[in-house]
């Protein structure tokens, strides 16, 4: 596709709308499919419009929850070779749309209900309420796993002794100073997990804690595996950066971001296929935003934008920890993340103006 070619080509920059061309096409096809599904399910105009509207709302929900995902993707992608950039933006989006929005919810039901994949698919099609109940019951371990992984992602950005740009200086300066203490992020995450697990019933607390440990181990294993894979690639091919290891890291990161959206989608509809259409449309916009951020060098142009995204990630991880205790609407989660990113963008523009004036 032309967009992928633009990523590593130093030619003229594409217009903003051109980045979203494929997203618009997928939106039209997805909403048309949603309307068709609505007609097949209900046979009424009202029912068709209802399914159409739910698909649109789910797409908006996914986009609002994934601003920070796009920024973190762009941050990692800018260090990847053009070959791996293209692979992530083609294979990666297939895994994101089909893997996380369709296969992942089915896999949860397969494990939770101890049934086969085909039976899970039949259950999703014929007994959506029972399917939704199983998904809801699995929310506790998912929240613990995803929240722990995302908190490690967020804290690893701030606890970096080489980090020289600070947005909230008094806080980030201290984090950078203490970054030389080995394992400080792990200690903070484990203390946070222990605190939240104390508020749960003993049986739930055990599930929460063990799932959180798996989330922590997954982060550490992906980091180790990524380092080994990428260092071996560098040995084979001089100058190669961020290959297979970075690809795996981004896929696990996307999965962690997707947990909240997939679970939250069941509040609007119990139909797996409607959820897949809505969230799939949203995932395409995340891909388009990622391409635009990388090609335009937006992260370099707006110096605090990454900071806002990583603060949003830490906030999302805490919300995921709170979810087993009390329900927090996904709208608040999405708006909270978008607000933090918006403030960081405004702070970046303000900093640029002040420094250009002094320059």
Automatic annotation (TrEMBL):
Highest taxon, organism lineage: Bacteria
Keywords, sorted A to Z: Membrane, Transmembrane, Transmembrane helix
Listed transmembrane segments: 20-39, 45-67, 88-118, 138-159, 179-200, 206-226, 263-286, 307-325, 331-349
Pfam families: DUF475 (PF04332)
InterPro entries (alphabetical): DUF475 (IPR007427)
NCBIfam families linked to this entry: PRK14013.1-3 (NF010613), PRK14013.2-2 (NF010616), PRK14013.2-6 (NF010620)
Entry protein name: Integral membrane protein, YkoY family
Organism per entry: Paracoccus laeviglucosivorans
């Amino acid at each position: 596709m032309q967009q992928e070619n633009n990523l590593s080509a130093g030619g003229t920059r594409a217009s903003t709308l051109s980045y979203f061309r494929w997203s618009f096409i997928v939106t039209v096809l997805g909403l048309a499919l949603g309307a068709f599904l609505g007609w097949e399910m209900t046979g009424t105009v009202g029912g068709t419009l209802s399914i159409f509207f739910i698909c649109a709302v789910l797409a908006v929900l996914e986009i609002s929850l994934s601003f920070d995902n796009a920024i973190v993707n762009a941050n990692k992608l800018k260090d990847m070779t053009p070959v791996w950039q293209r692979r992530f933006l083609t294979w990666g989006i297939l895994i994101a749309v089909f893997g996380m929005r369709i296969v992942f919810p089915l896999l949860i039901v397969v494990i939770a209900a101890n049934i086969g994949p085909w039976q899970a698919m039949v259950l999703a099609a014929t007994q959506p309420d029972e399917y939704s109940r199983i998904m809801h019951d699995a929310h506790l371990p998912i929240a613990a796993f995803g929240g722990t992984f995302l908190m490690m992602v967020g804290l690893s950005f701030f606890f970096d002794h080489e980090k020289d740009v600070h947005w909230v200086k008094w806080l980030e300066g201290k984090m950078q100073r203490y970054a030389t203490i080995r394992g400080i992020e792990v200690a903070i995450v484990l203390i946070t997990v222990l605190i939240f697990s104390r508020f749960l019933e003993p049986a739930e607390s055990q599930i929460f804690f063990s799932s959180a440990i798996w989330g922590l181990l997954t982060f550490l294993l992906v980091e180790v595996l990524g380092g080994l894979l990428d260092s071996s690639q560098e040995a084979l091919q001089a100058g190669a950066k961020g290959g297979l290891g970075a690809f795996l890291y981004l896929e696990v990161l996307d999965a962690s971001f997707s947990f909240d959206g997939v679970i939250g989608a069941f509040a609007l509809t119990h139909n797996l296929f409607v959820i897949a259409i809505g969230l799939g449309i949203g995932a395409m916009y995340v891909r388009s935003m990622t391409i635009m951020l990388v090609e335009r060098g937006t992260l370099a142009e707006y110096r605090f934008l990454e900071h806002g995204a990583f603060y949003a990630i830490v906030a999302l991880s805490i919300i995921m920890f709170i979810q087993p205790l009390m329900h927090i609407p996904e709208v608040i989660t999405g708006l909270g993340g978008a607000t933090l990113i918006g403030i960081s963008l405004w702070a970046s523009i303000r900093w640029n103006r002040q420094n250009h004036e002094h320059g």
